[in-house]
Amino acid sequence: MNVIEEVVEILDLLYKHGWDERNGGNLSYIVTREEVSEVTNPDIVSRTFKYNCDMTDLIGKYFVITASGSYFKNMVKASEENLGILKVLDKNTLGLVWGYSSGAHPTSEAPTHLRCHIERLKVDKESRLVIHCHTTNIICMTHICPLDSKFFTETLWKMQTESIVVFPEGVAVLPWILCGGDLIGIETAKLMSEYRSVVWAQHGLFATGKSLDEVFGLIETIEKAAEIYMKICDKKIMQSISNDNLKEIAVAFNINYRKGIID
């Protein structure tokens, strides 16, 4: 299975989970020259795309990036139309080496993705992937809960035992900001220096990590915790996970969780 097939598999799963309706959501994935060579000639650039975004730290890297307006439901049957492999040519330019066969261009969130990659690579040199999706229950929570990172983190940790194990750094939360612009990208990237996942109020989730499996699993776990919350938030709670229980989990699994949430 080549890298495009691996990406398509995850994008199809995101669609089937209901987290990327229509053309909602996008993905960017750092791939090696060797991985690109299995798909196409990595040295032939057919088109270029300019951005008002300093990509100096990414020059020479290759990315798989979803196309603007691409429907995830079509990825399996039309991956070359809906995906592109791009190389960062200079501080402001991406070069297309494969894909976008119908004349498409990178997602409008590409600058946000690239800014997030830059910040994540500063704290984790193995970080490769950014996925944005419209996780239903996380969006629901942003309508009824304080838009506060501490509140979301503690609440999601206490919904299920595995939460603090999977995202010990917690989740960050941003208020509603117009998507596709520089401001939301800059604010999201700032938070990526401390978090692997950022909630966009009334919009969805940005999640990052080292591999397709890791990031998909992170999204699944956060959304599952949010689903549990939405199913019980209006019920009388008889028992729950306590702060002491969370600390016990952290000790048992040697988890270095974010301090100041349950301490």
Notes on the protein architecture:
This protein has 263 residues and is an alpha+beta fold. It folds into two domains: 1-107, Class II aldolase/adducin N-terminal domain (L-fuculose-1-phosphate Aldolase), CATH 3.40.225; 108-263, Class II aldolase/adducin N-terminal domain (L-fuculose-1-phosphate Aldolase). 38% of the residues lie in helices and 18% in strands. The chain has ten helices and nine strands. It has a nine-stranded mixed beta sheet, with helices on both faces. Helix 4 (110-123) runs parallel beside helix 8 and helix 5 (136-144) crosses helix 9. The longest helix is centred in the C-terminal third of the chain and has 21 residues, at 212-232. The chain is elongated. 44% of the residues are buried.
Sketch the major β-sheet: 9 strands, mixed
Q: State the domain count.
A: 2
- Backbone structural class: alpha+beta
The whole-number mean of residue pLDDT values reads 96
**Uncertain residue ranges:** none
Global outline: elongated
The helix fraction, in percent, is: 25-40%
Question: What's the CATH H-level superfamily name of the largest domain?
Answer: Class II aldolase/adducin N-terminal domain
Q: What gap, in angstroms, lies between the N and C termini? A: 46 Å
* Biggest β-sheet: strands ordered side by side in the sheet: 2-5-4-3-1-6-9-8-7
